[in-house]
Design a protein that fits this description.
single chain; 167 residues; mainly alpha; 6 helices; 0% strand
Length: 167
């Protein structure tokens, strides 16, 4: 009840002063971005830890592999786990866009999110100005998390290849 009254008061204040509306919108976007960034980092860290446990990617296990079909199968498995992790993160952003009404269909939300996350750029969708800063910040999040995944993949690949003396 108190939250509804506070929201109504903010809406009335925003209607009276466009500057207040812009400040509320910016604050909302930054708050949502901060929350989503924390969630994505937790999801990514959890996903990498889960893949490490699932695929037994400890240093000594990786170094024990010979460079053969099994080693390549392991590297493919790591890449697929990381790919699924990124798809999950894209889907979480898309669900947010659907929940706040920024986009209306699952397909458009996934398309927008994938385009932003991969830093491809924003597709020509009718995306509301109230959430455009979050869309841009999703690009930064995606860039950093893709880099994190690349570092993990390269480190694991180097352990396998160096054990055999290939690298």
């Amino acid at each position: 009840m108190l939250l509804a009254a506070q929201t109504a008061a903010e809406s009335a204040s925003a209607a009276a002063d466009p500057g207040v509306a812009a400040t509320i919108s910016l604050g909302t976007q930054l708050g949502a971005a901060a929350l989503l960034i924390v969630v994505m980092v937790l999801v990514h860290a959890s996903g990498i830890l889960a893949a490490t446990k699932l695929l037994r990617l400890e240093d000594r296990t990786l170094r024990a592999h010979q460079v053969d079909v099994r080693a390549f199968g392991l590297l493919i498995s790591i890449a697929l786990c990381l790919f699924l992790l990124h798809l999950t993160e894209i889907a979480l952003f898309a669900l947010f866009y659907l929940a706040v009404g920024a986009l209306e269909t699952v397909e458009s939300a996934l398309y927008f999110s994938a385009s932003a996350y991969t830093t491809l750029g924003h597709p020509d969708l009718d995306f509301p100005d109230d959430w455009r800063l979050l869309g841009a910040l999703e690009g930064l999040v995606g860039f950093l998390l893709i880099g994190w995944s690349a570092a993990v993949f390269i480190a694991d690949m180097n352990k396998v290849l160096r054990a055999e003396g290939v690298g």
